[in-house]
Fold this protein.
Amino acid sequence: MWTKLIWVLCFGVLLFSPRSLAIAADADYAINPGDILQITVWKEDGLDKETLVLPDGTISFPLIGSLTARGKTVAALQQEIKTKLATDIPDAAVTVVVKMANGNVVDVIGQVNKPGEINTGHRVTVMQALSMAGGVTPYAATGKIKILRRDSSGAETAIKVPYDDLMKGESLDKDVVLSPGDVVVVPEASLL
């Protein structure tokens, strides 16, 4: 009895890490390259697979081959796999779980206490990312903070962050939710 209970608790802890629970709670989370997915087809032992989303956004799955996962929600990917398996396995019960959200990465550079890459594991705003980077240094030009974002066509845009207003509790709608691959730039204040 006790060994069975311990096994269930350990398995549950491994399967439902805090990062995977956060993703499960975010139903519209878009899958990113670098994420690790657990895909299971009920009663089909050969179709229980942990897979990495490749840099091009694809995964491979038995009986289907390669399919695009990037940008899809877990529910959309589940439905697509179920549809593609329908000829071989009618009424397949497919489950997709984001086991590790390794693809949800943003960079914070410049005048912050801990610059570098941040694997957020969930959606964060620019202010949350700055907090995760240890906050801005006294030498930061807080009026010139920007988010650099590259869209799917490769075009890059700069989004101005009204940091001082946000710190006062104003312009809260400007606390932008970051997308994977965004770069938050905190320039150095000019001494002149």
